[in-house]
Regulatory protein YycH domain-containing protein (Sutcliffiella horikoshii), 441 residues
Amino acid sequence: MKYENIKSLVLTILVLTSLILTWNLWTYQPDFDYLDKRDSTISEVAINEKQEIGQLIQPSKLLYHFDGVHHGTEELADLNLFMEELRRWSLFDIQIATSYSEEDFFSFMHGSEKMEVVFPTTIPLQTFRYITGFSDNEIPPNISINRILIDFSGETFGSEPIIYLVHYDDQKVYQARVRNLSTNELSRTFYQTAKILPTFIYEEVDENQYVFFPEQSPKVRTGYYYAKQLNPEDFKNALFSNPSIVTRDQVTDGVVYRDDSSLMSVSRPSNNLHYVNPGNTGPENSMDFNVIERGIEFVNEHSGWTGQPERFKLDNWTSSTLEHNVVYRMFIGDYPIYYFAEKGVADISQSWRNNEIYEYVRPVFEFLSWKSIATNIPSGRDVRRELDNFIDLRNIQDIRVGYELRRESDVYIIEPIWVYKENNTWNKLNFTASDELEGGI
């Protein structure tokens, strides 16, 4: 009797255990949140570095005007010093300024006791919040500027001085009051010491539109670099939504990756990457899409900025209902780099459609060890003489010194040249044989 009781108890326990296991199997749900987070972490790719938006937006030159004589700088150290000052400011009470006639606009912008901060392209005021402060809760929308003007004549001095935010091409002027700005200190640090800087001359390219550039030949050097190649597989994992289904094909001049909707090619001769998503079709772009900020965020998503000695800065952007475009240019030291044969070798270029990336072209190398030699190039006076040969100057937006990039076997060479920007495109300024110095040919 005792044995039968024990057997019944054991059977009861086994039945209950079986029921519990069956119930657990029926009701078990895996922790998909954990799996999703785990998969997301695995798919994240960090190719190189991230950059803050404020690190990629910087002036291209500072100009100082003294009774018809103009001085300026394009040196990185001087630009960085001003950016430190700009980050301390807090702008408020932004409003349209008094209208200026075409005759008065030159003296307003380039007259004596003026400091002019020139940006390489127009910047939406909303994006300026990454490089300076705003006291007002709301930044005025639909305003873009490409210059800041500071007047040291004393008329705008005070505890909350006025500066001017200028869209130079359209001759639109806004004024803003500024907290945390001492114009006396700013004058001592920048304006009063500016006469030791290089003299700048100007060319009138259109009615009341002036382009300033150094008068003398700058001290420049030709650089020779070896380079480290970036791994295309990292970009494959970063740019394709499902890298496991991407095919890889070896071609004559490189390698091609593709899936059902996207294609990425890597060229060995140019050492650049070209990603395109032709399947990205849909309604038109929204005009409030900020391609400058979104373009930087996109590269940050795969830590795609390379580090020293090269760095990237915002160069240009355009916007339309069909396509948004943005270019971040490679710099070494004080000067930008240009590769005229194709894009994506000395710059990072993006096109966006339907508010999504459509085309992404960029270099897949970073510079390593280097050496340099002193190089002579023509002066700004030579540039001015060469401009006399131009039929039409109206579309010229800027003139400056830069580097032309070329490659000889495994060595990258950056050679100083003069360049000019026309209709948002940079071109090499070629000098005629009659010039005393033929640099830049």
